[in-house]
Amino acid sequence: MSSSRRGFRTGGQRLWEPVRDQLGPASARGRLLRLRARAWLIVQAASGAALAWWVAQDLLGHPLPFFAPVTAVICLGLTYDDRVRRILELTIGVAIGILVGDLFVQVFGSGVWQILAVCVVAMSLAVLLGAGQLLMMQAGIQGVIITTLVAGEGEALSRWVDALVGGGVALAIAMLAPMRSTTERPRERAIDVVGHLSQVLTDTAQGLRNRDLGRTRGALTTARELSRELDALRDATAEARAAARLAPLLNRSHKEDVREVGELLGPLDLAIRSVRVLVRRAEIAVREEEFVPDTYIDMVTGLAEASATIQEHLRSRTPLEAAREDLVHVARASTWSHSRAGLSAEVMRAQVRSAVVDLLVVSGMTTAEARRRVPETPEEFDPSHPPEEEDGPAPARADLPRTPGPAQSS
């Protein structure tokens, strides 16, 4: 057999293997699980298509409202975050393309230059309206369809109205009967954020203990990426809040879950900022071969374990108060300062103390009570200290006792 034939057969086998694996019996269970996960999405899209057709044909009297069900399916087929906003964007994009295409067909007919003009005008209008790429492309696609496949006389703006009908039906379904994943996504993202926070701290502690610069640099890179993950959590929470506010079919437990996760955003943001500075100083300490006491590294490890405990309670939907014991233990350890600790080590200790306060707030404490659990000296430590009556506003975050030292931003 020639080498070229063997190469052809080997290449063909490589192309076929992924298809065979995907369609084989071994992947059948995975395909069924995907179908189950998307069943509600399919039901919504199919129901939206039928309802949009009925509204446009039976209520509005349009003889062939092609774009009503098409728009509904396109919009309800979205599985992105912020589904309601994207439905609005898609509806506007489709409507722009159809409107521009209809006007051009009525005045200039169909042809090569008309397609060019419709695409340019429709996509440009979409961009001027602040559209993203999805909206811009839909405007161009719908304009092309109008100009070529369904160009006709006597229908004027009816197809544009059909698109609005389809988008309106999709929006109503998305708000009144949202996908359950819309309200579950915030908790899933919160679990991921806290898990990655714990991993960053674990890698930082190991990098400090082993004087591994590559590991601390990797931890710093991941720590900086946590801000984007937190932004995704904010977006998911905002959409879930809108769904919980507008959707009567959501039960009370889903709404309460969205509220609970939303309350984590503020303290999680502060904890991530503190950890990012901590990791930055750890990277500097390893790079400059600065002395970092083992007790300080143990604090970072303890903070990682406490974060992992919070993640586990988020996953199991159990009260976060159970994670406080680990945090209080780290708080006590942070009251001891080592006589040989340098600037980076003391900044790290200060950031551990700040992060402990933030994670105690994540667990459900008030900020004032959390600060009391992180005293300045070991003698002041009392893990069961009850909150006192406040004589005035709580001190600013910068008033938290910590060893002076500039914390470089990352």
From TrEMBL:
GO annotation, cellular component aspect: membrane
Swiss-Prot/TrEMBL keywords: Membrane, Transmembrane, Transmembrane helix
Chief place of localization: membrane
UniProt-listed Pfam families: FUSC_2
Membrane topology annotation: Multi-pass membrane protein
UniProt biased composition (Basic and acidic residues): 369-387
Transmembrane segments: 39-56, 62-80, 87-105, 111-129, 157-177
Localization, UniProt: Membrane
Keyword Transmembrane helix: yes
Integral membrane bound transporter domain ranges (all copies): 51-173
Region described as Disordered: spans on this chain: 369-410
Protein name (database record): Uncharacterized membrane protein YgaE, UPF0421/DUF939 family
Lineage: Bacteria, Bacillati, Actinomycetota, Actinomycetes, Micrococcales
